[in-house]
Every structure is written in structure tokens, then in C-alpha cells.
């Protein structure tokens, strides 16, 4: 009886071991199939190269400027920094009054810099700036301003009046467009339309079909045809005759490149 019981127990354990082995083999087979299928998919995705064409387009606008930007500075020096500051403030007040009288709006007058620098002299120095004695020579107070002139017919008078009011430096006069970003977008739209048209023509010639856009790049190049005033000293700018300032034209160019998938 005990011998039969031991045989049954041994047979059951053998059967369980056999079943477990079969389950393990099945699971291993499924895993291997999944791995091979994944590798095959990746291989296909890696080997299949999409056919593409690349086309380009150009958009260009030539427009008259509608605003002018001018930058200038006012500088005063004094041993007393408070007096130098007061002198600058007095000049700036007169300049702003003149600008507004010439139609420049307050919102278009912007301070871009305000600096106070101590200035030193070196006494008994044979090799500047080494050796000798450093002596305070005064304080330089400088205020820099940028203005936007919307009435271009008054630009010459504005510039002349600035010179007569004692600005110490003027430069950066350029004629541009207030809605420049909108003009760039318009030029870009023209370039895209041209590129799409070229893509359709090329696809027809090649006997293929455009599927979708898979690449895009663009660049915009503004070209200004303007007149500028650079680095005029206070004395040389004084005049009762308004400056003649031709505005010229602005050319805005946009170039785009579009890549299409084809079949």
C-alpha cells in the first residue's frame, strides 16, 4: 500500500514538472516571436526611405517708409554732479518741448541710457595712466534718447531743431516701417505661394503625387535704402535751414524652402 502511494506521488510530481516545462516553452516562444517581430518592424522602418522633393520660393516687397527713428544724447560736465544733472534735465525739458511742438508724441520719446561718470586727471605722470597723482576733474552726466517720427515731412525740421538745442551727439537716423512684422509676413506668404506652385509643377513633370510637407525653413532679409546722420557735434549742427532727408524705399525679402514627400 505504501509502495503504491509513493508511486502516485512520484507520478504526480513528474506530471506537474512536465506541464510546467510546456508552459515555460510556450512563454519563451511567445517572447521570441515578439522580439523578432519588433526587430523586423524596426528594420523595415529603417530601410524604407521616403521619396521627397525640395522646392523654394521668394517673396519681395518694396515699400515707402512711414516712420523715422533718431537717437541722440545730451551731456554736461561739472565738478558738482547735482549741477551737471540739473543742466542735463534743463536741456532735455527744452528738447521734449520742441519735439512735441513738431508733432512727436510723448509715447515716441524714450530714454535709452542715463550715465554718471567721474572723470580724473593724472598729475606728474610720465607714462599715462600709471604713476602720478589721480585728481577728480569733474562728473560727466549723459542722457541718451531715441525718438520715433511719424510725420516724415517734419523729420528735417526735427533733426535741425535738435542740433540747435544743444544735443552733443546724434546718429542712427533710419527710415523704416511701423508695421514691419506684418510686411515680413506678407513677403513670406508670397514666398510660400510661389513654392507651392513650383511643387505642383514639378510633381506634374515628374509624374508623382505630393503627399505632405515634411520639412520647412525660411529667412527674411530687410534692405533699407535710407539716409542717416552720424556723429555731428553741437556746433556743426546749429542751423536755421531744415535738413534735407530723402526717405528712399525699403525692400523686404523672404526666402522659404519646403520639402514634400512624394509617391
End-to-end separation in angstroms reads: 80 Å
How is the CATH topology of one domain named? Alpha-Beta Plaits
Shape call:
elongated
Name of the CATH first level of one domain: Alpha Beta
The topology string of helices and strands comes to: HEEHEEHEHEHE
Number of helices: 5
Structural class: alpha+beta
> What is the CATH homologous superfamily assignment of one domain?
Protein of unknown function (DUF541), domain 2
Largest sheet: 4 strands, antiparallel
Radius of gyration: 39 Å
Supply the CATH architecture of one domain.
2-Layer Sandwich
Strand content: 25-35%
Query: Any low-confidence stretches, pLDDT <50, length ≥5?
Result: 225-236
Strand arrangement across the biggest beta sheet: 3-4-2-5
Helical content (DSSP H or I, runs of 4+):
40-55%
Amino acid at each position: 500500500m505504501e509502495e503504491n502511494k509513493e508511486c502516485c506521488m512520484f507520478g504526480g510530481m513528474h506530471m506537474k514538472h512536465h506541464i510546467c516545462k510546456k508552459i515555460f516553452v510556450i512563454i519563451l516562444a511567445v517572447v521570441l516571436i515578439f522580439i523578432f517581430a519588433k526587430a523586423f518592424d524596426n528594420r523595415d522602418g529603417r530601410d524604407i526611405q521616403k521619396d521627397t522633393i525640395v522646392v523654394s520660393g521668394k517673396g519681395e516687397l518694396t515699400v515707402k517708409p512711414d516712420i523715422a527713428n533718431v537717437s541722440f544724447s545730451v551731456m554736461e560736465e561739472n565738478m558738482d554732479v547735482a549741477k551737471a544733472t540739473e543742466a542735463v534735465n534743463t536741456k532735455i525739458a527744452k528738447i521734449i518741448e520742441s519735439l512735441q511742438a513738431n508733432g512727436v508724441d510723448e509715447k515716441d520719446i524714450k530714454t535709452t541710457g542715463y550715465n554718471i561718470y567721474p572723470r580724473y586727471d593724472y598729475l606728474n605722470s610720465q607714462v599715462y595712466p600709471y604713476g602720478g597723482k589721480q585728481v577728480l576733474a569733474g562728473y560727466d552726466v549723459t542722457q541718451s534718447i531715441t525718438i520715433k517720427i511719424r510725420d516724415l515731412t517734419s523729420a528735417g525740421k526735427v533733426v535741425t531743431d535738435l542740433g540747435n538745442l544743444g544735443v552733443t551727439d546724434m546718429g542712427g537716423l533710419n527710415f523704416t516701417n511701423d508695421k514691419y512684422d506684418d510686411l515680413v509676413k506678407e513677403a513670406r506668404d508670397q514666398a510660400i505661394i510661389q513654392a507651392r506652385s513650383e511643387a505642383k509643377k514639378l510633381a506634374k513633370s515628374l509624374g508623382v503625387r505630393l503627399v505632405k510637407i515634411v520639412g520647412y525653413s525660411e529667412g527674411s532679409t530687410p534692405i533699407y535704402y535710407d539716409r542717416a546722420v552720424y556723429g555731428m557735434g553741437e556746433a556743426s549742427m546749429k542751423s536755421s535751414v531744415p535738413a534735407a532727408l530723402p526717405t528712399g524705399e525699403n525692400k523686404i525679402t523672404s526666402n522659404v524652402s519646403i520639402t514634400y514627400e512624394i509617391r
